[in-house]
Write a structure and sequence with these properties.
Blueprint: H1 2-11, H2 21-54, E1 56-57, H3 58-67, H4 69-76, E2 87-101, E3 106-113, E4 121-128, H5 134-138, H6 150-174, E5 180-189, E6 197-205
Parallel strand pairs: 1-2, 4-6
Antiparallel strand pairs: 2-3, 2-5, 3-4, 5-6
Helix pairs in contact: 2-6, 3-4
Length: about 210
């Protein structure tokens, strides 16, 4: 009976096409693999060079953000053209690990910055769960218009976060409270009242 209903339905619709669940799943997996590969290529290609060039001292950027987010964004940051897009800031800094949180899956390092007056603490995301899409949104060559839909764009953000985690996983595992650290990372803010979280793209033990 179900087959008869399907046949009659298809007979009344031009261009009716039956896609099996297996075919649909394979297509989604292929798309996911394509986005993952694109993220890896962006990370090792333009991404690495962009982060190295764009990074500004976090001790300069944070006071500017506190004073006026839009002014800070125009001076130090980048914002995609989409209405309401957040400001992103690529920053570099060094300091002493004040605390390490790995009890939560959204792991963090709290770092007291060198050169800040008074001493300033910042929070670095070390995963495995990373909040937000700061890495994706900071890259001017990654744009929503280049994706078929919002889901694919979101998947690109997740894939780039995964690349960032791979880049920092070694030092993140060994750093402990009291240790020195150097980092390059990305901040994403829609308003100056938001908590500042830095998603590191480079992390190493300092001296």
């Amino acid at each position: 009976m179900a087959a008869l209903v399907l046949a009659v339905t298809c007979a009344t619709l031009q261009g009716c096409k039956i896609i099996s669940i297996a075919d649909e799943t394979a297509a989604e997996q292929a798309k996911g693999a394509g986005i993952t590969g694109r993220a890896a290529q962006a990370w090792t290609g333009e991404g690495a060079a962009y982060f190295a060039k764009a990074a500004k001292p976090v001790t300069e950027v944070l006071p500017a953000i506190r004073a006026n987010l839009d002014d800070a964004g125009r001076t130090y940051g980048y914002r995609q053209a989409a209405e309401g897009a957040p400001w992103t800031f690529v920053v570099s800094g060094s300091g002493t690990v004040k605390a390490k949180n790995t009890q939560s899956r959204a792991g963090t390092l709290v770092v007291t910055l060198d050169g800040a007056d008074p001493a300033t603490d910042v929070t670095l995301q070390i995963g495995p769960v990373v909040r937000g899409n700061a890495v994706r949104d900071s890259l001017p060559f990654i744009s929503f218009k280049d994706f078929e839909n919002q889901l694919d764009y979101a998947d690109m953000g997740k894939a780039l976060n995964a690349e960032a985690l791979k880049a920092i996983e070694g030092p993140a595992a060994t750093l402990e409270a009291g240790g020195k650290v150097d980092f390059v990372g990305v901040i994403s803010l829609s308003s100056s009242s938001e908590k500042v979280l830095i998603t590191p793209v480079s992390l190493k033990a300092g001296t």
